[in-house]
Amino acid sequence: MLKQSLAAVTWLCVFTVAFVSPPVWPQKPPKRKTPGQLKVAACCEEVKELKAQIANLSGLLGELSQKQERDWVSVVMQVMELESGSKRLEGRLTEAEGKFSEMTNQMDIMQLQAAAQTVTQTSADAIYDCSSLHQKNYHISGAYKLPPDDFLGSPELEVFCDMETSGGGWTIIQRRRSGLVSFFQDWKQYKLGFGSIRGDFWLGNEHIHRLSQRPTRLRVEMEDWEGNTRYAEYSHFVLGDELNSYRLFLGNFSGNVENSALSYHNNTVFSTKDKDNDNCLDHCAQLRKGGYWYNCCTDSNLNGVYYRLGEHNKHLDGISWYGWHGANYSLKRVEMKIRPEDYKP
Ligand SMILES: *[C@@H]1O[C@H](CO)[C@@H](O)[C@H](O)[C@H]1NC(C)=O
Ligand SMILES: *[C@@H]1O[C@H](CO)[C@@H](O)[C@H](O)[C@H]1NC(C)=O
Ligand SMILES: *[C@@H]1O[C@H](CO)[C@@H](O)[C@H](O)[C@H]1NC(C)=O
Ligand SMILES: *[C@@H]1O[C@H](CO)[C@@H](O)[C@H](O)[C@H]1NC(C)=O
Ligand SMILES: [Ca+2]
């Protein structure tokens, strides 16, 4: 519709330019009228009428193009309004996320480029994770940027370090606390990681696999809506590689919460909404709306849907730990973190 009108206007323009506008090429202006020209002007009433018609037409054209412009402007305005609307929303989300981060951590990202330059190419010296940062006297919890390391084959990676809990040195691999990030993601997203490092995120199965290649400890911390906290720790945490569908292996348990909620998932592989690797006829990732080591299906669902207070005890696909609050209780906060087994604070 718009296109057609535009084409019509274009035609009118061509017409008008051809017949109304004086030629633009240089021309000697006639100094005085010759008798022949005078004769033509005097005799041709037809020319006058033609001129009037053309004037009418160009008037019409003007009107038309004005209307076009109005339409166009209103379309542009609408688009801009839509855009600013979605920007506002996005802004509000970012703001909320930002406030959350501010409340819970006061630290800024520390650029470690300088440190990277001084590192010699030995694995003992390399900045591998938050535990190596702790050894280099970075003792403040917060977001850090790990430099890429050719020797270890590790890429640049933004991590969040817990430098306080039971000696610190923990690299956080999962966090739920704001509910602003959906964890109903596909295989690729879980592989590469998603979310925001100061808010809710999954570090990425590839990274977790790489970081767990030396003897590693897993710690899971949870908080319910009444403010009670629990933790579970597992020695010899291993995440297999992608060929092994990121199989989970857990060693010995310690902690102050019932253990089977996670050990039920021991020795099972990872499933997402687009990859059903579970031990069930059902498609657990679809049912529980997350990516996880689904067995048949869950005794815990730490990557489930974030439900807020008031909604948190009505759903089976929430962030649950069956042995603590049961299947229908979605927790308020969860953090999963890892550090080397031989770590000494
Ligand atoms: C110019 O247009 C008006 C109406 O818009 C019409 O009445 C008039 O006859 C037209 N004149 C010519 C020369 O076509
Ligand atoms: C678990 O603990 C037992 C006894 O403390 C020990 O022998 C065993 O090696 C541990 N297993 C793992 C996987 O850490
Ligand atoms: C996980 O399974 C292995 C054997 O496959 C077992 O040795 C280990 O104790 C199990 N871990 C837990 C926490 O149940
Ligand atoms: C969980 O909720 C479902 C349906 O909402 C209900 O059928 C089930 O009994 C509940 N389970 C528990 C343990 O509360
Ligand atoms: Ca299945």
Any chance you could write out the topology, listing elements then pairs?
Blueprint: H1 2-19, H2 35-43, H3 45-104, H4 113-118, H5 130-135, E1 142-146, E2 157-162, E3 170-176, H6 187-192, E4 194-195, E5 201-202, H7 205-211, E6 216-223, E7 229-234, E8 238-239, E9 248-249, E10 253-255, H8 260-263, H9 284-288, H10 322-325, E11 333-340
Antiparallel strand pairs: 1-2, 2-3, 3-5, 3-11, 4-5, 6-7, 6-11, 7-10, 8-9
Helix pairs in contact: 1-3
The structure holds 2-acetamido-2-deoxy-beta-D-glucopyranose (NAG) (4 copies) and calcium ion.
Main location: secreted
Signal peptide: 1-26
Protein name: Angiopoietin-related protein 7
What is the helical fraction, as a range of percent? Answer: 25-40%
* Overall 3D form: elongated
Structure classification: alpha+beta
Tell me the total number of β-strands: 11
- Strand residue content: 5-15%
| Tally of contiguous helical segments | 10
- Which radius of gyration do the C-alpha atoms yield? 34 Å
Give the CA-CA distance, first to last residue: 71 Å
Description:
It holds the Pfam family Fibrinogen_C. Residues 1-26 form the signal peptide. InterPro entries: FIB_ANG-like, Fibrinogen-like_C, Fibrinogen_a/b/g_C_1, Fibrinogen_a/b/g_C_dom. This is Angiopoietin-related protein 7. With 345 residues, the protein is an alpha+beta fold. It is 36% helix and 15% strand. It has 10 helices and 11 strands. It has helices spanning 2-19, 35-43, 45-104, 113-118, 130-135, 187-192, 205-211, 260-263, 284-288, 322-325, and strands at residues 142-146, 157-162, 170-176, 194-195, 201-202, 216-223, 229-234, 238-239, 248-249, 253-255, 333-340. The strands form 2 sheets. Strands 1, 2, 3, 4, 5, 6, 7, 10 and 11 form a 9-stranded antiparallel beta sheet that branches. A two-stranded antiparallel sheet has the order 8-9. The protein is elongated. 31% of the residues are buried. It binds 2-acetamido-2-deoxy-beta-D-glucopyranose (4 copies) and calcium ion. The site of calcium ion (CA) has 5 residues, from loops.
